[in-house]
Amino acid sequence: MSAAGVPLLNRRAQVLGHLVLIFYTLLAILPTLLIIVNSFKDRLTIFSHPFALPTASTFTLDGYHTLASSANFSLFFLNSLLVTLGSLALILLLSSMAAFALSEYRFRLNTLLGLYLSVGIMVPIRLGTIGILNLMVSLHLVNTLWALILVYTAQGIPLAVFVLTSFMRGVPRDLKEAARIDGASEYRIYGMTLPLIRPALGAVTAISMIPIWNDLWFPLILAPGEKTKTIVLGASAFLGQFVNDYNAVLAALTLAIVPVVVLYVIFSRQLVSGITGGALK
Amino acid sequence: MTDRSLPRVRTRRPFPWHVVVFVTPALLIYTVVMIYPILSSLWLSMNNRLPDGSEVFVGLGNYRKLLASELYAQPLWNALRNNVVFFVVHMLVQNPVGLLLAVLLSFRLRGSAVYRTLLFTPTILSVVIIGFAWKLILNPAWGVQRALLTPLTLQELDLPWLGLPATALPALSLISVWQNIGIPMLLFLAALVRIPEELYEAARLDGAGGWTIFRRIQLPLILPTVGIVSVLTFVGNFNAFDLIYSTQGALAGPNFATDILGTLFYRTFFGYQLQSGDPYMGAAVAGVMLVVILAGLLIYLTAWQRRITEVQL
User: Which of A25, A131, A276 lies at the smallest CB-CB distance from B41?
Assistant: First the structure.
């Protein structure tokens, strides 16, 4: 894809384009920057000069100290990490297996299975919340991280299978046939194709990760206990409790922002190529 | 897996156990944790509990109650109306602005990749953060709003936007637009960069400007994506909950002005200060949401898809 062809804009249009983009970029990032910057300032300056950067005299870590002493933030963080990583591992493993079968073999229910799974791409899992809660109650999984992992896995499978199946179809047949002739089992051949679709696995990871990490609904309903709170639910409860301690609130928000932004920076290329179907590399 | 030492009649097609092994785990979790709960919710919505504690099948009775009784009908219609407003704001602001940004990025101005990355950041943040950040900014006590508006001599706009019944819903819709704009932007951009170079070459020879290129080349070719973005917006909006809940609480204040189907569903099922929860009626609200979403999908599949044969993504 060559970049040369597209721009047909004259100088004025280019300047205008930049102005619009710069304006919108500021709109997009200013609220977040405002939170992060103000979390390092003392309370007076937060209110009197919201846009100022912290200086030597206004810099403070009070909010972070309050946070460290009063909330189980590290536990919530760990919960979020376990739930996200556990769900992602299951989504990647189970979806790649199913996608391998759907792309590799012709069997009677092939098309039907594809259709059945695609229901889950369009119909939100939230509509089954009451059924899910009843199910988790009867399995004694309420207030465990397993409840969340299972739900997010179920939620992630349809789209992951859809994306991975189309990538699996692109793996050359000769390779697999050669392995079969050498006596490799079907399971070996599956294992062999995984490294070949690594970009697709990265894309699925990136697309699935963000909604899982950020979800509020299912933690609120399935795992609201103090030991199983995720960081999003924990932050939301904390914000309600400390609503007037702006230092602590801003520090809590900053801590909840940073991990996602770090993950985003690491995965942003896969995310973009995942959402755009590999068109932008 | 076959025992080679035993003489065995080779059937032409042995039962493909490996296919079963590959497909079953995904299918099992998907069916048990997603499809079965949705169906069991629907079943629950057609039942109710008698005073003696036994469950009884009432058919569409709960739905009738939801649509007609004083206690349920008013909140339901209110939530549905608010949800429509929420959706319309997304369609009128999020998708056109997303398209504009995508078109600008598709012209590959200097620094496009940086813009693209930064423009997508709000989308990756949790709504809890988004909601609180905007609550602080729009909070009269913090005065960020005032500090921004006063230099522009727009002091009259310094209002408690989230606290007034008339403005809370549009304000929250715009916050949601602000957060979610990255997704239509990327989907439009993906469609735009697939447009063959020759078309631009031809336009260049004809001396077409940016606007003509957009009208005559880009827009017609990305119509399928417009459809997909609309349907994604629709499903996402009629299933929304997190932003309203984390800024306005379960009661979706002020005075239910920001109540949408998702928050109504939560309250009906779990109850709140004024009313205890009811799983049967909650399931019925979920049933209504399912019907609304399926209706939207159906309109998309019949009316939109039929006109556009080429499917992208």
Answer: A131
pLDDT tens, B131-142?
A: 888 888 888 777
Confidence of residue B313 (pLDDT cuts 50, 70, 90): very low
Per-residue pLDDT tens digits for B74-88: 999 999 999 999 999
| Residue A3 pLDDT | 43
Q: Which residues pair with A41 in a beta bridge?
A: A59
B169-187 residue pLDDT tens: 999 999 999 999 998 998 8
CA distance A48 to A54: 12
* Contact check, Cβ <8 Å, A9/B210: yes
Give A201-248 pLDDT, tens digit per residue: 988 888 888 889 889 999 999 999 999 999 889 888 877 777 778 888
Tell me the C-alpha to C-alpha distance, in Å, between residue A257 and each of A42, A213, A231, A238, B242: 20, 11, 10, 15, 17
A53: DSSP letter: P
Are the CB atoms for A41 and A60 separated by under 8 Å?
Answer: yes
**Checking phi first, is residue A54 left (phi over 0); if not, alpha (psi -120 to 50) or beta?**
beta
At residue A41, the 3 state secondary structure works out as: strand
Predicted confidence (pLDDT) at residue B147 exceeds the cutoff of 70? yes
Which H or E run includes A219? helix A217-222
Residue B86 and residue B94 in contact, taking contact as beta carbons nearer than 8 Å: no
Q: Which residues of A touch B197 (CB under 8 A)?
A: 2, 5-6
Nearest residue of B to residue A218 by CA position? B242
Number of H helices, E strands in chain A: 13, 0
Q: Could you tell me if A71 and A234 are in contact, meaning their C-beta atoms sit under 8 angstroms apart? A: yes
The first and second tokens of residue B262, run together, are 């998702």
- Find the distance separating the first CA and the last CA of chain A, reported in whole Å: 9
DSSP designation for A105: -
What residues does B57 pair with on adjacent strands? B47
Taking the CA of residue A96 and the nearest CA in chain B, the distance in Å comes to 9
CA angle B287, A223, A39 (to 5 degrees): 110
How many whole angstroms separate alpha carbon B219 and alpha carbon B99? 10
DSSP state of A196: G
Q: How far apart are CA B183 and CA B179, in angstroms?
A: 9
Is the CB of B23 less than 8 angstroms away from the CB of A157? no
ipTM, 2 dp = 0.87
Mean of the per-residue pLDDT values of chain A: 86
DSSP string, B98-131: HHHHHHHHHTT-TTHHHHHHHHHHHHHS-HHHHH
